[in-house]
Amino acid sequence: MNISRLTIWLEQKILVDIGFCIESSIALVGQSGSGKSLTIKALLGMLPKEMSCELEHSSDFDLIAGETVAFVPQNPFTALSPLTKIKKQFFMPQEKIKRLFAQVGLDETLLERFPPELSGGQLQRVVIAMALGSNPKLILLDEPTTALDPNTREMILLLLKSLQAEFGFKMLFVTHDISSAKSLCENICVIKDGKVVESGKMRDIMQTPQDIYTKTLINANFANRNFRV
Asked: How far out from the chain centre does Cα 64 lie?
């Protein structure tokens, strides 16, 4: 899928003007305010009404809206109603829900519980199961591991890679966490102030970043870790 151009503006001011290709999985990386959230909102058709958007893309499915695009939000604790049992938050037959739970590694007994009774990792798996329910061609991931501890974060990333291998969907992973992006994605697109500063294969850019902004992001991300590309 090729997004040749995505432009978002407010009145006369252009906020985002970028392009990228989602071959299999790509990370959209940048600091807060770089345009990541606006990009994913535009692709979900959820921009504030005062903003305008133009999208030029080519793909074999409808990118905007429709059941071919699914979304996994940043915080699983706010993605579900706390007063409703898990099973009643799925709008599909119970047998399909149980199948999805098995695919994401959850026991079906959790369907009888309320969201506050589950851990963050379990809730994120529930949200991923919901995303899989529409058999998506593309999953948009908005910082899906930010609220998780390191061990649970790694578990969720491995789960997403495994599910992608099984079902063949594409992934757009919006994040500021380059470590998680490196674990999950083949490609990376670095944006700053609504513009692409560098993009390409993940390993190439991690080893030899060309832009000073990319170098700064990498150094800041791994300043306190032992890391080898």
From this structure: 16
**Count of Cβ atoms closer than 10 Å to residue 99 Cβ:** 15
> Has residue 226 been placed in a domain?
no
Q: Residue 171 — φ and ψ, nearest 5°?
A: -130, 135
Q: What is the pLDDT along the chain (229 residues), one digit of tens a residue?
A: 899 999 999 998 999 999 999 999 999 999 989 999 999 999 988 999 999 999 998 887 776 555 689 999 988 888 899 999 999 999 899 999 999 999 999 999 999 999 999 999 999 999 999 999 989 999 999 998 887 888 999 999 999 999 999 999 999 999 988 889 999 999 999 999 999 999 999 999 999 999 999 999 999 886 645 444 4
- Asked whether residue 228 is assigned to any structural domain, the reply reads no
CATH of the domain at 103: 3.40.50.300
Q: Which residues contact 117 (CB under 8 A, 6 or more apart)?
A: none
